[in-house]
Automatic annotation (TrEMBL):
Statement: the UniProt record of this protein carries the keyword Cell cycle: yes
The protein's annotated pathway: Cell wall biogenesis; peptidoglycan biosynthesis
Binding site for phosphoenolpyruvate: 23-24
Active site: residue positions: 121 (proton donor)
Localization per record: Cytoplasm
Gene: murA
Sites bearing 2-(S-cysteinyl)pyruvic acid O-phosphothioketal, chain numbering: 121
Residues reported in the UniProt entry to bind UDP-N-acetyl-alpha-D-glucosamine: 97, 311, 333
Protein name: UDP-N-acetylglucosamine 1-carboxyvinyltransferase
Recorded catalytic activity of this chain's protein: phosphoenolpyruvate + UDP-N-acetyl-alpha-D-glucosamine = UDP-N-acetyl-3-O-(1-carboxyvinyl)-alpha-D-glucosamine + phosphate
Gene Ontology cellular-component annotations: cytoplasm
Species classification: Bacteria, Bacillati, Actinomycetota, Actinomycetes, Micrococcales
Family: Belongs to the EPSP synthase family. MurA subfamily.
Enzyme Commission designation: 2.5.1.7
């Protein structure tokens, strides 16, 4: 497949697109199916590469997966996992970080697991120390191998009390997927409470789990002996929705995102409005548009939910290059998520990155040599360029910059974008973008 997109920018995006289920939920719900005795059915599944990667891993473990791609329905039947009993897989994680979440379900079913080294976006170190600490506290024995880790649970997995040093999404999911079938009670403090985690809890409850969530980031789980399958419709992808909203703003366009939902996007909508974008919400989606006139600069900090999520940051920064004045963005979730701004600078944007915590609150990256704050001065016209996609959201940002720029840009490595944006080229076409493969 041709991995370069030639984008002829300068045309505002106009029209309607649809977003389906959230990348950051669907993959976890697929792993949850491994815990059930019977088949599960997941609806509203997007056609993105991460779904293919997790499907491949589940099949390797004996899960039978059928996918009606057009209807977005996945059926996952784990009844053959015991007979397949794959102890040591000669596999790699592909582009995804999801394999680490197989630990709990496989340990419960097979008593052992081999997890390959992880993929995912290179936006910081992304260690798995919280995951391993959690698994060890449940009673797992973890050993490092050449290309991954090997785990055993010689005495089973037992409920425990854990406080996370930081409300990590993946570590919270690790705990949930392990605790639901562990023996006894588990209590997690400082848990992440992202909407995708809440929907995973919905799925686990449908399967028979007992989970309560307090208002102070404490989650309690009473382990149960067996879980069944589930039927569930995935919540929609608020990152994809916000990305198209940012594209509408940066190109002075008007995009109706069918499937976008308000409650999961409150922090984004507030920021969008402060920058000068407008939106209209109805029962089926959200219309995002540039109302004309100047955009306003803002001070923004990314944070865990209910804050402004880090995955919204990169697409929005492109729109901020078109706002009048100095915007400050303090990235507090990942230490290295401004690499994508190099290409924007090459296109004419004025963006400086700093090691200091700018914008208000000190974060855990302050004084540690990480360029995790950015100052964007605008508005600056963007000029076409030859750019290489660095990661998923950074890649979409580059695409937005190319759409906003005068002239024809070459955007290389666009396959990375398929990992989280369903049919993005069809959607660009539907919104009137001008592009070709050469
Ligand atoms: C597939 C998926 O759902 N990915 C999302 C998930 O990633 P993911 O689950 O990997 O992100 P985490 O919330 O775990 O990471 C947050 C921070 O905690 C650190 N950390 C995490 C685990 C650990 O063991 N040790 C550690 O230090 C990370 O390096 C990072 O700085 O949540 C992120 C934060 O909303 C999103 O940007 C990603 O899109
Ligand atoms: C960082 C992201 O994803 P992942 O955790 O899958 O790398 C993302 O979706 O922006």
């Amino acid at each position: 497949m041709n991995d370069v997109l030639y984008v002829n920018g300068g045309t505002p995006l106009h029209g309607e697109i649809t977003v389906r289920g959230a990348k950051n939920f669907v993959s976890k719900a697929m792993v949850a199916a491994l815990l059930g005795e019977g088949p599960s059915v997941l609806r509203n599944v997007p056609q993105i590469r991460d779904v293919g990667v997790v499907t491949g891993l589940l099949e390797l473990h004996g899960v039978s997966v059928t996918h009606d791609e057009a209807a977005g329905v996945l059926t996952l039947d784990p009844s053959n996992v015991e007979s397949a009993h794959v102890a040591d897989i000669d596999a790699h994680a592909g582009s995804s970080r999801i394999p680490i979440l197989f630990c709990g379900p496989l340990l419960h079913r097979l008593g052992e697991a081999f997890i390959p080294d992880l993929g995912g976006c290179r936006i910081g170190d992304r260690p798995i120390n919280y995951h391993l600490d959690i698994l060890r506290q449940f009673g797992a024995v973890v050993e490092k191998r050449a290309q991954g880790i090997e785990l055993r649970a010689p005495n089973g997995l037992h409920g425990t009390k854990i406080e996370l040093p930081y409300p990590s999404v993946g570590a919270t999911e690790q705990l949930l997927l392990t605790a639901v079938r562990a023996d006894g009670l588990t209590e997690l403090s400082n848990a992440a409470i992202e909407p995708e985690i809440m929907d995973l809890i919905n799925v686990l409850q449908k399967m028979g789990a007992i989970i309560s969530v307090d208002t102070d980031r404490v989650i309690r789980i009473e382990g149960v002996g067996r879980l069944g399958g589930y039927q569930h419709t995935a919540l929609s992808d608020r990152i994809e929705a916000a990305s198209w909203a940012s594209a509408a703003l940066a190109t002075r366009g008007d995009v109706y995102v069918r499937g976008a939902t308000q409650p999961e996007m409150t922090a984004f909508l507030n920021t969008f409005r402060k920058v000068g974008g407008e939106f209209e919400i109805d029962d089926d989606g959200i219309r995002f548009f540039h109302p004309g006139g100047d955009l306003r600069s803002i001070v923004l900090e990314t944070d865990v939910h209910p804050g402004f999520m880090t995955d919204w940051q990169q697409p929005l920064v492109v729109a901020l290059t078109q706002a009048t004045g100095l915007s400050i963005v303090h990235e507090t979730v990942y230490e290295n998520r401004f690499g994508f701004t190099d290409a924007l600078r090459g296109m004419g944007a004025t963006i400086q990155v700093y090691r200091e915590c700018l914008g208000g609150h000190p974060c855990r990256f302050g004084q540690r040599n990480f360029y995790h704050s950015a100052v964007i001065s605008g508005p600056t016209p963007l000029a076409a360029a030859d750019i290489e996609v660095p990661d998923l959201r950074g890649g979409f940002s580059h695409l937005i910059a190319a759409l906003a720029a005068k002239g024809t840009s070459a955007v290389r490595g666009i396959q990375l974008i398929d990992r989280g944006y369903e049919h993005f080229q069809d959607k660009l076409g539907a919104l009137g973008a001008e592009f070709s493969h050469g």
